[in-house]
Amino acid sequence: MNLQSCVEYHFSFASRLCIMTTVCEANGSFAIHLLKTLCQNNPSKNVCYSPVSISSALAMVLLGAKGDTAAQITQKEKQPVQMMRQKDTFHLAYVNEVQAQVLLMPYEGMELSMVVLLPDDGVDLSKVENSLTFEKLTAWTRPYFMKSTDVEVFLPKFKLQEDYDMGSVLQRLTMMNVFQEDKADLSGMSPEKDLCLSQFIHKSVVEVNEEGTEAAAASATISVDCADIRHVSTFCADHPFLFFIRHKETNSLLFCGRFSSP
Questions:
Q1: Is the Cβ–Cβ distance between 46 and 260 less than 8 Å?
Q2: Residue 169 CA neighbour count, 13 Å, CB half
Q3: Could you report the per-residue pLDDT of 80-94, keeping only the tens digit for each?
Q4: Angle between helix 51-63 and helix 3-41 axes, rounded to 10 deg
Q5: Closest to 200 in 3D by CA, of 234, 220, 183, 176
Q6: To the nearest whole number, what is the mean pLDDT of the chain?
Q7: Is 121 in a helix, a strand, or coil?
Q8: Is the pTM value of this prediction over 0.85?
Q9: Which of 12, 28, 34, 174 could cross-link to 70 by cystine, CB 3.0-4.6 Å?
Q10: Residue 73, pLDDT score
């Protein structure tokens, strides 16, 4: 390979990397905006969804479209819930801005990790939700911000299965044209005229148990080392929290959710 070819390959790779980074950041911002909207629509309910699945479906629609397209947690009685206990070395941080702990739990293989945002006891989760952005989530989980420490983790055992009609949600995010018969232009997808979206249905299932996390038929196991732990910090998720399943290399959010009650 001559020098010219090497230079062309380098800049071609750099361009692809730049595009991928931009896409991942855009998808991450979309995921957080969507989380906030769903939480506002369901202020006291569990929330879980796959931003990757939704983005992929939207991309398929929008690539065929022509033209421009553009709370608070209620107090509830205490409810019993089965808690899982685990001791290991994890990355842990505290965010003064929202008075919350951030826990990073890697999955076996290290390609995926679960991020849990847990506000202090007595602090409304809405404080975290209102302040959260993709940029902040990224900053709060950077290696220099977090500390690798021995942690005793208490997480509820739960399974969330949620169905959403995303039409009204997406329209609130200014994606309206594809839902309006007089404005939608999906001629790039189908030769049929007067075609528009009537519904956008999304179903998501996330299960967290002793064996790990199962999300939409994909499972992984969290590594556990049962060695003796000294000077252990405590992370006790016995009140509402946000969670994310993230791909490490691309920083993509594969699943997002809020656990409010069993």
A1: yes
A2: 23
A3: 567 888 888 889 999
A4: 110
A5: 176
A6: 66
A7: coil
A8: no
A9: 174
A10: 24
Secondary element (H or E) of residue 51: helix 51-63
Distance CA 43, CA 177 (A): 28
CA 97 to chain centre: 20
- Looking at the DSSP bridge assignments, the partners of residue 236 are 154
Provide the CATH topology of domain 3-53+74-164+204-259.
Answer: Alpha-1-antitrypsin; domain 1 (2.30.39)
Element (H, E) at 4: helix 3-41
Phi-psi group of 110: left, alpha or beta (phi > 0 → left; psi -120 to 50 → alpha; rest → beta)? left
Residue 17, exposed/middle/buried by CB under 10 A (0-12, 13-18, 19+)?
exposed
**∠ Cα 202 119 46 (to 5°):** 25
Highest mean pLDDT among 27-31, 211-215, 234-238: 234-238
Residues 27 and 128: their CA atoms lie apart, in Å, by 20
Which amino acid type is present at position 149?
T
Domain regions of the chain by residue span? 3-53+74-164+204-259
Assess contact for 222 and 213: CB atoms under 8 A.
yes
More confident residue, 197 or 65: 197
> Which runs of consecutive H residues, i.e. helices, occur in 86-181?
125-131, 134-140, 167-172
Tell me which residue has tokens 């730049």.
18
Which pair of structure tokens corresponds to residue 166?
Answer: 């995303």
Q: Provide CB contacts within 8 A for 71, sequence distance 6+.
A: 39, 40, 43, 126, 129
Assess whether pLDDT exceeds 50 at residue 230: no
